[in-house]
Amino acid sequence: MQHKPVLYQEIIHALQPRDGGRYVDGTLGAGGHARGILEACAPSGLLLGFDVDPQALALARETLAPYEPRAHFAQASHSALNEWLKRLGWDSVDGVLLDLGASSMQFDNPERGFSFMRDGALDMRFGVNATMSAEEIVNAFDESELADLIFRYGEERDARKIARAIVANRPLRTTGELVAVIEKIRPRRGDKIHPATQTFQALRIAVNDELGAVEKTLPQAVEALTVGGRLAVISFHSLEDRIVKEYFREQSKELVNPPYERIYEEERPARTKALTKKPITPSEEEIRENPRARSAKLRIVEKL
Q1: Segments of the chain with pLDDT less than 50
Q2: Residues in CB range of 47: below 8 A, 6 or more apart
Q3: What letters, b where the CB count within 10 A reaches 16 and e where it falls short, cover 51-74?
Q4: Does residue 76 sit in helix, strand or coil?
Q5: 258 preceded by a cis bond (ω within 30 of 0)
């Protein structure tokens, strides 16, 4: 079942696409947000869309076929933003969207290994550039490395117990086998959140270097924006949101060195203005229609 993209109306309102503008969707997915942007910036606005997942990119091309040649596609991480802007000869853009994390189509395909609800290969790679699959991590990392990874990226309180159980039950080849190991450590007791959620999140983040990609992309996006241009980021867990929140706060702060003192490496005016003091979250109605939207947080800045 295809849902409308998360926080769809809020994104269109945030980016305010206009005729003749240039926009970037750093995470195309099925192309839902991109279609809204292209419709709003008709008839001459342009869009550059990124996705490392070839299946997602193929679907987005179908979705956005009516808008060619205004849409450009890059099978690459959004962290390659500068490189692709140079390729297109774009000196600046009017809006950038990052909708972070895995997409619904990735979760819905058990063969991709993102979901703990259905059995499939322990893969979790967004694209071919990922250096290791989840299966390789689960079976090759030592116990302490696994525990650190699960704790750091999954914020899982039972990380050490889960890592110990994984090592004791190796090799693990499928999502079902990994879930069975986790459920022995964290039995289901009617919790809303499945006991495997945080471990799967941790593996997915590690496989795709998701946090590293965000940290590389945010400065490029702010630099690329024209004055008045906007950067909108949807995050789905606290680790991503913390990176976005702290970067936006830093960029919205003026650095001024007091007389006769050298505190900052540089003096500079604020580069952006925060348009969201608190993150925008989905409405109750949207969460009812798409339960996966419940943890989404949207933050927006405008280039000064």
Answers
A1: 1
A2: 22, 23, 24, 25, 34, 37, 38, 41, 64, 67, 70, 71, 72
A3: bbbebbbebbeebbeebeebbbbb
A4: coil
A5: no
CA nearest to 96, candidates 32, 43, 39, 50: 50
Positions of E strands within the chain: 22-25, 46-50, 71-74, 93-99, 225-235, 272-274, 297-303
The CA distance from 17 to 95, in Å, is: 8
Show the domains of the chain with their CATH numbers.
8-105+210-303 (3.40.50.150), 131-208 (1.10.150.170)
Q: Which residue has the tokens 């933003």?
A: 81
Q: Annotate 13-44 with b (16+ C-beta within 10 A) or e (fewer).
A: ebbebeeebbbbbbbbbbbbbbbbbbebbeee
- Give the per-residue pLDDT at 106: 73
Q: Quote the CA–CA distance of 197 and 208 in Å, as a whole number.
A: 17
Q: Is this model's pTM higher than 0.90 or not?
A: yes
CA atoms within 13 A on the CB side of 195: 18
Let me know: does 170 contact 139? Beta carbons within 8 Å. Answer: yes
258 DSSP 8-state letter? P
The confidence score (pLDDT) of residue 2 equals 58
Task: State the pLDDT at residue 264.
Answer: 57
What pLDDT, on a 0 to 100 scale, did the predictor assign at position 257? 64
